[in-house]
Specification:
Distance between the termini: 33 Å
CATH superfamily: Glutaredoxin
Strand content: 5-15%
CATH class: Alpha Beta
Radius of gyration: 19 Å
Helix content: 40-55%
Number of domains: 1
Largest sheet: 4 strands, mixed
Strand order of the largest sheet: 3-2-5-6
Length: 196
């Protein structure tokens, strides 16, 4: 009996060590470039910056109120964005079900010329995300949250309620690109909160 308890106790310790090691690996596997994050200009609460600038597909204003935001950059002409659509919808549904404190805001692509480009993308993917109106993008700074030479798509920028950039899919070179890094970093933040 004492031997069984000792074995069970040892297995519990091993499981905890493995879980902590996995969490450390997950957090460290996505490199959030500090120069990219720190160079972003914070203009106050993210929802305040977006106030009146986000709308849904019906053209109605959307009020943003979340702890975290995943700003999504993509375009309807991008084959990788099309391939990613089911995975993104499943991931977002899981985030909402498990945590409920994140909102995706669609920003489009630098080559967009009007709201229609963003509407086409959202309709094509059957997304229900709000988007930043084309003529409001410059005012909000949504296209310049990170200072990178080129922003590869599909890509995300993870922003907290205060407007601080926490993670980006992009870095200073193409080799720094990791589409899912902000998604993984968001989930790591949630898991760390659960451990507290």
């Amino acid at each position: 009996m004492k031997v069984e308890r000792k074995i069970n106790s040892g297995m519990g310790t091993v499981c905890r060590i493995v879980a902590i090691a996995a969490l450390v690996l997950l957090v460290s596997s996505c490199n959030t470039s500090r120069d990219v994050v720190d160079s972003a200009v914070s203009h106050g609460a993210f929802s305040d910056r977006m106030d009146g600038c986000c709308i849904d597909l019906a053209g109605k204003p959307v009020v943003l109120d979340s702890e975290y935001y995943l700003v999504y950059y993509a375009a309807d002409w991008c084959p990788y964005c099309k391939e990613f659509q089911d995975t993104l919808k499943d991931t977002y549904a899981r985030f909402q079900r498990m945590y409920g404190n994140v909102q995706i805001v669609f920003a489009g692509h630098a080559r967009d010329t009007s709201n229609q480009n963003m509407i086409d993308f959202l309709l094509q993917g059957e997304y229900g995300f709000p988007y930043v109106k084309y003529d409001e993008r410059e005012k909000t700074g949504i296209m310049n949250l990170v200072d990178v030479p080129k922003f590869w798509i599909p890509g995300f920028v993870l922003v907290d309620r205060s407007g601080k950039v926490l993670s980006s899919s992009n870095g200073q070179t193409k080799e720094d690109y990791c589409r899912d890094c902000p998604l993984q970093n968001y989930e790591s933040l949630q898991q760390c909160d659960c451990l507290k």
